[in-house]
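wait is this the right file?? whatever heres the structure
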C-alpha cells in the first residue's frame, strides 16, 4: 500500500507485506521511493527533398545509381537504413543500413544502386540511440534514368 509519510518529507512511503506460509508471519518493509524521467529530443521528421539519377558508364549499365537528398529535424541521426520494396511497399527486396556522421545540419545524400529497371517503393529511416523517423517515396528507374 502507499500513503503519505508521517514526517515532514512529502515523498510517498511504501509498505510491503509478504506472507510466510511456514510460520504465518508477516514481514513489513517501510521506505521511500523515487524515480526520474529523462526527456530527450528525438528525430522528429525526415523528408526526401530530391532524387537524382547518376549517369553511369557502359560498363556500369547493369546498375542504376540514384542519389536521395534527405533532411531531418530534431536530433542528429547516427545511422540510415534504406528498404527497397515492390511498388505497393508490401514485399521487401533489399535493405541496406550504414552508420553516418552528421555534424551540424541534418542534410545528407544517400546513394543507392538498382539492379534492374522498374518502379520501387523506397523507405529511408534515420535513427539514433533514442529514436527513428521514416520517409517513403515511389521511384521509377529506367535503365540509368529515374523519375
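ok assuming it is, sequence goes like this
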Amino acid at each position: 500500500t502507499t500513503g503519505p509519510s508521517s514526517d515532514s518529507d512529502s515523498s510517498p512511503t511504501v509498505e510491503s507485506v509478504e506472507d510466510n506460509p511456514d510460520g504465518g508471519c508477516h514481514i513489513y518493509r517501510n521506505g521511500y521511493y523515487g524515480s526520474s524521467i529523462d526527456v530527450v529530443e528525438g528525430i522528429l521528421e525526415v523528408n526526401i527533398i530530391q532524387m537524382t539519377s547518376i549517369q553511369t558508364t557502359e560498363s556500369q549499365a547493369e546498375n542504376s545509381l540514384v542519389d536521395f537528398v534527405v533532411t531531418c529535424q530534431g536530433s542528429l541521426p547516427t545511422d540510415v537504413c534504406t528498404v527497397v520494396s515492390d511498388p505497393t511497399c508490401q514485399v521487401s527486396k533489399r535493405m541496406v543500413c550504414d552508420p553516418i556522421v552528421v555534424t551540424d545540419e541534418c542534410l545528407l545524400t544517400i546513394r543507392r544502386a538498382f539492379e534492374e529497371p522498374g518502379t520501387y517503393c523506397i523507405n529511408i529511416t534515420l535513427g539514433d540511440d533514442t529514436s527513428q523517423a521514416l520517409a517513403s517515396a515511389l521511384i521509377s528507374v529506367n535503365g540509368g534514368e529515374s523519375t
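Residues 43-141 form a domain with the Immunoglobulin-like fold (CATH 2.60.40.10). so i think its the right one actually
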